[in-house]
Amino acid sequence: MHIADGILNLPVVAGGFVGAGAVAWYSLDRIKRRGDPREKIPRAALLTAAFFAASLIHLPLPPAGVHLVLNGLLGIMLGWFAFPAILIGLFLQAVMFGHGGLTTLGVNGLILGLPALMAWRLFHWQRDPDASPWRTGVRGMLAGSGAMVAALMLFLAALLLGLPAEYGGQASMTALMVIIGAHIPLIILEGVITTFLVVFLQRVQPRLLEGI
Questions:
Q1: Is the pLDDT of residue 60 over 80?
Q2: How far is residue 30's CA from residue 205's CA, in Å, rounded to a whole number?
Q3: Backbone phi and psi for residue 59, each to the nearest 5 degrees, phi listed first
Q4: Which domains does the chain have, with CATH numbers?
Q5: How confident is the model over 100-138, as pLDDT tens digits?
Q6: Structural contact between residues 33 and 188, judged by C-beta atoms closer than 8 angstroms
Q7: Cβ(69)–Cβ(112) under 8 Å?
Q8: Which residue stretches of 3-132 are H helix?
Q9: pTM of whole model > 0.85?
Q10: 10 Cβ partners below 8 Å, 6+ apart?
Q11: Residue 56 in contact with residue 97, Cβ under 8 Å?
Q12: DSSP, res 39
C-alpha cells in the first residue's frame, strides 16, 4: 500500500505534503495540550518500531503479495501519537528499504495515518473499560479492519487523482482491481490480529488500551 516515487503527479504529491504537515502539526499540538509527553514517548517509539517491522512481513495472499500494516492497532494504542509515529516509520522504510518513496511520504502518511486516527476514535467511542472481552473484541475487529478499508480507499483515490494520463486505460483499471482483491484477505487478517491483541491487553494490561 506504499506508493513509490515517480508515480503521482506534482499537485497530488504537493497536496500530500501539505495535508500530512497539517495533520502532524495538529496531532503534536493536541499531544502538548495533554501535558508533558516525554513519559509517553517510549510506548510510541516501541509501536513505531512494530509498524516498521510489520511492513517487512510479506504475505503471499492471492492474487498478489501484501504486507501487514497494523495502523488500526497503532491508532488504538497511541491516539494522537499515531500519525507522527506512522510518518517516522514510513520515512525509515523509504530510506532503509526503498518501500514507498520520499516524494510520496506525505501521501503515504495520509493514506495510513488518517485511518489510524479514525480507528482510535472508533475503538474508544463510548467505550466502557469494564466491557466484556467479546465487546472489546468486536471494537477491535471494526477498528482494525476499518482502518485497512479506509487506507485502501485513500490509496485508490490517490492513484486515481495522481496517475499521469499515460497510465490510464483498461490496463490500469485491471491493476487496481487486482490490488483490491489482494487486500481483501489482509483486511480480515488485520481485524483478527487487532481483535486478539486488544482482548489480550484488556485482560493483562488494560491501561495500554487507554491511548496516550
A1: no
A2: 25
A3: -115, 125
A4: 10-209 (1.10.1760.20)
A5: 889 999 999 999 999 999 999 999 888 887 788 889 999
A6: no
A7: yes
A8: 10-33, 41-54, 71-78, 82-97, 105-124
A9: yes
A10: none
A11: yes
A12: G
